[in-house]
Amino acid sequence: MRLSPIVEFDPGFARMDLPDLRINYDPIDPDQFDRPIVSFCIETNENNDELPLHSHKKGQLLVASHGSVMCRTPGGLWIVPPQGAVWIPAGVLHSNCVSDYGKVYVVFIDPKASMLPSTCCTFTITSLVRELIHRLAVFPPLYPLEGPTSRLGRVLLDELVQMSTEQMYLPISADSRLQHLAASLLNEPGDRSTVEELAARYAMSERTFARLVLKETGMTFGRWRQRLHILVALKRLSAGSSVQAVSLDLGYETPSAFITMFKKTMGKSPRRFLAERSSFLSREPLG
After folding, report:
1. DSSP-derived 3-state class of residue 228
2. Helix 127-138 to helix 148-160 angle, to the nearest 10 degrees?
3. Residues 123-133: tens digit of each pLDDT
4. Of 116, 147, 166, at which residue does a domain stop?
5. Are 135 and 286 in contact (CB under 8 A)?
């Protein structure tokens, strides 16, 4: 079944030329399903059709089962690694990019049905939440309002509000210079230009550039670029790239230097971080 999305466009932000933000699966319009919560399983291929920024009347939770998902919103980019999920509240413009041959679960939630956050965020999901999402995706989206499937949905809603939040996102402001910089670094994450060199590129003093980044993102440029590297690394590692290849692509002199940065930021090494999450999702869903 192919469903066309109801979309609202933001022409200004849509001009930002970010890499790999494409859709390679049939889009879904969740607003046609009059249920408090519905779940869909989506498996991707290699077809790359453009997906414009759009919004829904319902909130959207994306859970990565295989591969990774990158979500774009006017406020930044969000990465969904294995054992993670990203929450996009109702009405928020967004676009999703699922890695080739990926498998994700998309859960649409009526904002009146659950007190989930009013801003985008990432979650670490539990095994119970994972199994509930998988199970709900087996049933038709227009399930009976009273019955086992409806009760399953209510349990899932109760569990979702208890999930722990993470901040796996890269803040991007409406400033055209920072949008250009973000696009440039996402296309060439190994660019090791200094703050002085980048400031000159945008015809600013080093001090003005540093203040602009801090004001618009809430981070120093060093931390902001490090966050970008973490997101790029998670996306590529989830897709099967080696730690050595990713470290070189990001401009680190040695894999150990990259591992040290990753461990300092995420609390564990890249291999351990992904292994723990992947093993948690390795079992097939119940049913």
Report:
1. helix
2. 150
3. 878 889 999 99
4. 166
5. yes
123 closest CA partner among 156, 97, 92: 156
Cα–Cα distance between 244 and 78 in angstroms, integer? 24
> b/e for 198-213, b at 16 or more Cβ within 10 A?
bbeeeeeeeeebbebb
Task: Calculate the alpha carbon distances from 86 to 14, 53, 234 in Å.
Answer: 21, 16, 14
Query: Does 198 share its domain with 261?
Result: yes
- Under the banding of pLDDT at 50, 70 and 90, the label for residue 238 is confident
Q: Is 4 within the bounds of a domain?
A: no
What residue spans of the chain are helical by DSSP H? 11-14, 127-138, 148-160, 176-187, 195-201, 206-217, 221-238, 243-249, 255-266, 270-280
**The residue count for the chain:** 287
